[in-house]
Amino acid sequence: MPRASNRDSVLDAFAELLAHDGDRAATLDAVAEKAGVSKGGLLYHFGTKEQLVGGLVERLDDLVDEDIAQLRAAPEGVVSEFLRVSVANDSPLDRTIVALARLAQDQRYPEAHTALQRMQERWRALVAEAVTDPVVARIVMLVSDGLYFSSLLDVAAPETSREEIDEIIAMLRRLDTPS
Amino acid sequence: MPRASNRDSVLDAFAELLAHDGDRAATLDAVAEKAGVSKGGLLYHFGTKEQLVGGLVERLDDLVDEDIAQLRAAPEGVVSEFLRVSVANDSPLDRTIVALARLAQDQRYPEAHTALQRMQERWRALVAEAVTDPVVARIVMLVSDGLYFSSLLDVAAPETSREEIDEIIAMLRRLDTPS
DNA sequence: GTCTATAACTTGATAGAC
DNA sequence: GTCTATCAAGTTATAGAC
User: Fold this and answer.
1) Using the 8-state DSSP alphabet, how is residue B159 labeled?
2) Which of A108, A116, A149 sits opposite B148 (nearest CB)?
3) CB B49 within 8 Å of CB B28
4) B142 vs A143: CB contact, 8 Å cut-off?
């Protein structure tokens, strides 16, 4: 598999425009310009906008594969790592999630919606394995969703700091292992 | 103040299209048709789309006033009522929040963004009053955000039921009053 | 593989009749 | 207050040269 191709740059530009400037800013013109190709050049790689979305969906699936593996291997435990990654950090995974979340709110791109559902379900199953109390597991998922809500709208309470996340993790862990 | 005017129907139609079908579906044409007026008629009441957004922002502010009063008066306590209301129930407030959340992701409507921030800050202050532990307060806000994230994307784990919310509330309450 | 040019359509907004 | 045109700008997509 070749790397850093023009195709990849187009996908990068698409994701970044979506995540940073919103759905409406991510026009084919804007994506082409940001990627440094012409619109015709873009449309050679992705014949329609839907195929562009499809490319992003593929990328999400791959990044989630990596993420799940990383969560399983985390020495501190699945929940801690899961919540730490959930706080917006502008990683490739983060950007891809926000980009697809923007698209998922447009009824024209159901694949974006189902891709996010797939991801959510994989996370849910993993957290359910790692946590004893199902209510705690639910809270963990909702806190993670809340963190993504924040990066989607940039509106939730003054961004969650690393220390706050640590405190939240500690409290939820205490909650799952009743003394 | 007159009620059920054409102006109100236009605002209803706008909110419903935004919340149910997304940003792109809420065109002036679609809003006018759903409200049962012509586009010219719509534009008599709201001269630009920005004024239409402004109307929704006003409505949110009013509904949040009511909501805050209701939370303060809740016999079961602020947190319980707050989280119960946060789960999607298609109330006027709920619909208005989702509608403005959709708009807030478009850089053309900063008022939508600031209106949601105002709301969030009022809720945050109220919850901070009612809860002893600041970490618990933060979790409460994030769980609420998570619930709205779910109704925004219709993607989070199989919708939260009334019973689940009750269990979550009970657990968070226990957490705030250490034995 | 990449480009320019342009077609076909949609959207927000204006003009002016009633 | 409400309506019917109509316009100007922007968007996806196609055609065809290089």
Assistant:
1) -
2) A149
3) yes
4) yes
Q: A143: which chain B residues are within 8 Å (Cβ-Cβ)?
A: 139, 142-143, 146
Residues 6+ apart with CB under 8 A from A1: none
Nucleotides of C under 7 A from a protein CB: 1-5, 10-16
Cβ <8 Å between A149 and B154? no
CB-based contact A144:B92 (threshold 8 Å): no
Write out pLDDT tens, residues A64-89. Answer: 999 999 999 999 999 999 999 999 78
Q: What is the pTM of this model?
A: 0.96
Structure tokens at A58: 């593929």
Which residue carries 């600041």 as its tokens? B134
Nucleotide nearest to A49 (CA to C1'): D12
Distance from CA of A37 to the nearest CA of B (A): 25
pLDDT of residue B110: 97
For chain A, what percent of residues have pLDDT higher than 70?
95
Determine, for residues A21 and B160 on separate chains, whether the beta-carbon distance falls below 8 Å.
no
Residue at minimal CA–C1' distance from D11? A27
Which residue is listed with tokens 């009022």?
Answer: B122
Taking the CA of residue B170 and the nearest CA in chain A, the distance in Å comes to 10
Return the pLDDT at B2: 53
Task: Note the pLDDT tens digit of each residue in B11-37.
Answer: 999 999 999 999 999 999 999 999 999
For A26-44, the pLDDT digits (tens) are 999 999 999 999 999 999 9
Q: By C-alpha distance, which of B46, B40, B38 is closest to B15?
A: B46
In 3D space, the residue among B164, B175, B171 whose CA is nearest the CA of residue B84 turns out to be: B164
Handedness of CA A34, B108, B145, B130 (dihedral sign): positive
d(Cα B32, Cα B111) in Å, to the nearest integer?
22
From CA A134, how far away is CA B88, in angstroms rounded? 21
